Amino acid sequence: VAKDAGKRTYRVFSPEMDNKVAEYIWLDVNLRKALEADGQLKLYYQPKLCVKTGEVHSVEALLRWDSPDRGRIPPLDFISYAEESGFIVPLGRWVMREAAKQAAAWKAQKLDIRIAINLSARQLTSSTLIQDFSDVIRQSGQSQCLLDIELTESCLIDDEISAHAIIRQFRELGAKVQLDDFGTGYSSLSQLARLPLDVIKLDQSFISSIDQNATSQTLVRAMIAVAKQLNLEVVAEGVEAEGEAEFLKDAGVDYFQGYLYGRPMPVKEFEEWLNNKGKRLRLVA
Ligand code: C2E
Ligand code: MG
Ligand code: MG
Ligand code: MG
């Protein structure tokens, strides 16, 4: 940064920058350790419910890190570092493997649950991404791919053509490709229309209090209309209140995900949830 300011000027690191550097170094050392150690990293699973039937056929895998020094560290506090450093690539490989193992374990218990994993932009630039994914699928010993992919718009804008090819390859391997946080990025409708997607996930910022917000209602109705024209399924994420769910059901959303139904949970807790609450869920009338 100081170099950018020109050769004859120099800048003293501000305390704020110092903190950033120190944090980067801490993450660099400790995230590496966490990946090697057992049990520091785990996947939590959040159900997605079919609006028509109330059934749970899929979950989203969300990364959690329990650091021995700092306790629980949420993904937003380390994913961007991992993207910058490139560590997201081995980390993402771990997520894939872990999710594939879990999906196979559920299959062995006669539970048909697909698991969606999140990929960030940096992972899409990894030349081994598709190979890694197909290795994981093959090694899982399943005849069918049980993993789906969630991508954000930021994955698509840098290089539309290669994003297109990557999405196609994921689909050929049997994964459904979902566009995450839809409506918050900068991809255009024409771009969206060209991409071979399966699902869009409406960002939770539109869902929050949608039953009381006319602007959000208009936006969400328009997004759903576009999605239907393109034959895409629609997930609403961040559903927290009955009133929101009622509006979204009427508007034609296909799947609900949110605290109203289930938070992201560790495996055992999710299985209990599925056996109890998950079975008796009454969605909106
Ligand atoms: P995301 O993929 O959009 O995931 C949804 C986030 O919304 C999750 O936050 C989830 O816990 C939260 N959420 C779900 N339902 C509700 C609700 O009803 N209300 C509210 N307020 N929040 C809700 P989380 O787990 O903190 O993850 C944050 C982000 O970190 C994710 O956003 C995703 O972009 C990223 N992330 C998480 N795990 C991974 C991973 O394995 N790989 C990559 N590359 N990114 C990940
Ligand atoms: Mg997601
Ligand atoms: Mg999202
Ligand atoms: Mg998000």
UniProtKB/TrEMBL annotation:
Residues in EAL domain copies: 24-278
GO biological process, one term: regulation of DNA-templated transcription
Domain of life: Bacteria
Name of this chain's protein: Cyclic di-GMP phosphodiesterase Gmr
Organism annotation: Eoetvoesiella caeni
